[in-house]
Hints:
Elements: E1 8-9, E2 15-16, E3 21-26, H1 34-38, E4 42-48, H2 57-67, E5 76-81, H3 87-106, H4 119-139
Antiparallel strand pairs: 1-2, 3-4, 4-5
Amino acid sequence: MGCAGMPIRVNDKISLADDAVSVSFIRASGPGGQNVNKVASAVQLRFDTKIAPQLPEALLQRLGPLAGQRMNRDGVVVISADRFRTQERNRADALERLVALVIAAAHVDKPRRATRPTRASVERRIKGKSLRGDVKRNRRAGPLDD
């Protein structure tokens, strides 16, 4: 995904400019012995939304809330990946997560249209309520005739 100078394809209609995405390698935290202190295998991917003119404005507006704290004030989405031991797998993981985030932002929910219940469903509801009321009424103790 995303070779030097090649756009990163998200889907048929969306691709991210390679210059909007920068990748840097950092040291991973956590267990790993001496290797963790020597090798910078973790990846920090930065996607600058300001220099991504190919993305529609509406998509960028939805991307902000979806990214949450991963997006800073400057409009840069920062994704850190350190699940794997190699740079290549962490880089691929970070790119996959960025693509998944953009795909989620590209999805537009169909607007809900207010509808009225059908006459039959209203009648079924009223009939059910009256039957339930009859059951409760029959449970009541009537006057005792002794």
